Amino acid sequence: MLKNIDSDIWTLDGDRVTMFSIPFTTRMTIVRLSNNQLWLHSPIAPSAERFNTINELGEVAHIIAPNIFHHLFVGDWLAKYPSAKLWGAEGLPEKRPDLKFDAVLNDSTEQIWENEIDQLYFQGSKILPEVVFLHKKSKTLIITDLIQNHDPVLDNWFWRLVKKINGVLSPKGGVPKDLRMTILDKEIARLSLEKMLSWDFEKMVLGHGICIDNNAKKYVADSFSWLKA
Description:
This protein is an alpha/beta fold. The protein has a single domain (2-228), classed as Ribonuclease Z/Hydroxyacylglutathione hydrolase-like (Metallo-beta-lactamase, Chain A, 4-Layer Sandwich), CATH 3.60.15.10. It is built from 7 helices and 13 strands. Strand 5 (27-32) and strand 6 (37-41) form a beta hairpin. It is globular, with a radius of gyration of 17 Å.
């Protein structure tokens, strides 16, 4: 279902997928820019119904793959909207040579949406650096894998236990412990965190799990408290 987060920003939940046998919910974020063009973040599995839902919001102009794991369906959305620009995190053009990326997202990328959406290349992990975004008007942080908050209602006891051990089970979600172990350059990760916390945000949309509707900055700071140690 399409959920309105605030003015000109929505989420659309997708199907559950598995990675390393672990079940994950999926979520796409849609922002309507001031020129009425749509910015799609981490597209979910396509369907005619989902295409129709998006078409009612505006013209798809930008498709965002924010890290090297969230690319599975961007080709399907690009095929549906061939005039859209495809933006991918570093490493994706090499991983998906079948796709034509218009630009690679990092700190030096020209931000053509910078008046409405801020972006940060959150570094430190050799395995999963991620581009995070801030929709300024709604004060909403958009995160894919860096922070997760899985709904316990959706899993059986085994996966609830696995996710609790990994530190990503709601209401006490956070940065997955397996991801923490890949952050070897803690200094650059701290710099990324400081910049992210300097942004003005109150809500947080997550790619996996229950979103945070208020006091999101404290939630982010608490999720990364281990990094300051």
